[in-house]
Amino acid sequence: MKSSLFKKYWPLIFIELILLILLILFGIFDFEISSSFETYKNWLSVGFDVWGKKAVMVPIGVTIIFACVALGNRARNKNIFMYSMIGLAISTNITLALFLFDYKDFSLHNKNKTEIITAISMYIILAICILSFILTTLLINKLSIFKSKMYMSTLMSKVIYAIVFMLITTLIVSVLKLLVGRPRPRDVIGDGVDFKYIFQFYFGQDRGKSFPSGHTQAASLFLVLVYFVPISKKENIFKILFYIIAICSIVLTAISRVLIHAHFPTDVTFSIILSSLCFAFIPKLINFIIKK
Question: What is the pLDDT of residue 144?
């Protein structure tokens, strides 16, 4: 029994051990690492800083589309195309509203380099969001897997996995930010605020929200795309593709947050550990609760 569990979870165990070792090492040298370089404001750091904040609409929008299809599948009307189009419309309108509400000035005139990078990044990410919604809708209506009764019968469970994963990781990160109050590197290095170690609670007037990294956790939400891939060898290519997208999203966002002195290395590493564990065990927890 133990050997079979190890065989099943050894990739996760290996990844978590590596991340834990990094967390310990970063915990020792956090301040030294962050103070060893000046704030980088380039396409990587600024672009993926925006990505970590805005690209979250891709997994949220895709989940909305699948939720509409799952609800439609449970209704008497089995018109998947109609429900997927409803999901597409909802996702697109929410995304456009959020982008316009948060960043009203998309003009590139009279802007400095950082502002230009931010504006262009917003254009690119908005296009990626809408394109991902359209592709999801097209795949749902073209691929035969969505005509499978077995897949459609489990689709609502997959939607629940995705929603719970997004809510729980966001909630944990938000609560920890409020409780810990760790000052950001830019405040410690630039403004002389006292450095605080990971898990060192701080309640001073200049407390911050450095730990853990919300942008890195938001970037990890791309993992929910894996939930919607059918369990079959034929669709493994999609699972591999989504894993690559999620890993690139997480790693590059984490690096960007460290480069602009928004987070210490431990802040982003902890968020990665939290998200990966939640991604692996939330479906099992939900299935356990349902069976009970």
Answer: 67
pTM for this model (two decimals): 0.88
Type of residue numbered 192: G
Across all residues in the chain, what is the average pLDDT? 85
3-state secondary structure the chain: CHHHHHHHHHHHHHHHHHHHHHHHHHHHHHHHHHCCCCCCCCHHHHHHHHHHHHCCHHHHHHHHHHHHHHHHHHCCCCCHHHHHHHHHHHHHHHHHHHHHHHCCCCCCCCCCHHHHHHHHHHHHHHHHHHHHHHHHHHHHHHCHHHHCHHHHHHHHHHHHHHHHHHHHHHHHHHHHHHHHCCCCHHHHHHHCCCCCCCCCCCCCCCCCCCCCCHHHHHHHHHHHHHHCCCCCHHHHHHHHHHHHHHHHHHHHHHHHHHHCCCCCHHHHHHHHHHHHHHHHHHHHHHHHHHHC
Q: Which residues of the chain have pLDDT under 50?
A: none
For the chain, which residues make up each domain, given as ranges?
33-291
**pLDDT tens profile 106-157:** 666 777 888 888 888 888 998 999 999 999 888 888 776 667 777 777 888 8
